[in-house]
Amino acid sequence: MPPLPYASRACDPRRIAYAAELAQGTDRFHEPRRENCPWCGSARLRTRLRAPDLLQHKPGRFALDQCGDCGHAFQNPRLTPEGLAFYRRDHDETGPGGLPHQVLAARRDRRRHRADAHLMRNVGEPESWLDVGTGHAHFPAAAREVFPYTSFDGLDPTPRVEAARAAGRIEEAHIGHLADPHIADRLRGRYDVVSVFHHLAHARDPRAELRGALGALRPGGHLLVELPDPRSLFALLLGKWWLPHGQPRHLHLLPLHNLRAELESAGCTILVTDRRTPHTPNDLSAALALALTHALPAPDTPWRDTPPGPLSRALRAILSTATTPLVAAAAAADLLLSPLLRRTPGLSNGYRIVARRDT
Ligand SMILES: [Zn+2]
């Protein structure tokens, strides 16, 4: 984000809005801490990590707890809807500021989206497909090249999905969550395929979101879910520097066995469990980039009280340039290790499930 000119800083409407909200403190953004697991109800909880907002550097501190029985990891205390809106404002999940291009390059591009769509060719030629958490609908845009006769719709909590429809990337745009009964009713039984890429971490109630996704399928339809794997070795080694831990914007991290059990109990047959394809080769480079951004003098942002001084800005610029080769080296190591990590159980940082709704 470019620094704001000093003259316009005082009358920048975004800065004024942030100052008014921060004047009331950030404690009000947290719900009461819960004493049991939101997935299985167990009271055996432990703190998995504590972290500040490493991407945007907004004020506040957050904790992820983990259930000792089922392994579900979740933000505790959880942010209120108002708090989530505060921390998600001016943040784009598909290209978050604060991360260098070497880290972002490892995320999904058009080629990888097409490869993801190709994997669904085994289940036939769907007539209708809903992409949940679609954002700018880059996945449907690429998947249409693989399935030219399929009608793609998108659902997202943000108005980005409307812009994606206006740009012709999807046929219908729906704003909201599948956990919302109005949305779930509107979409019930309409789709041959529902895809949910890295969206459940953002849902306040991932189980309700899953049930909504299954409800949107026709009987015999297929659900594709992809998630970061909270049990991967790098998640445990890197802790708060592991990008998918994503505090404060990620609320839930589901272990694979919980998702499988949930889908089976909902009357689904699991057709594919894949840990290789969903691996994103940026564990080391993203962790290093986050740590460097944390250590460097903070940039100017609309939620800062005072702008950084000239010395601080100069130091940041010099150190950012000086450390760029380090991040590039880490990104190269990520790519080099990627084939090994994909093949070794417990090292891939993501997983995917394809399930058929039988009942
Ligand atoms: Zn649990």
From TrEMBL:
Keywords: Methyltransferase, Transferase. The keyword Transferase applies. InterPro entries: SAM-dependent_MTases_sf. It comes from the Bacteria. GO terms for biological process: methylation. CDD domains: AdoMet_MTases (cd02440). One of its GO terms (molecular function) is methyltransferase activity. This is Methyltransferase type 12. It comes from Streptomyces spiralis.
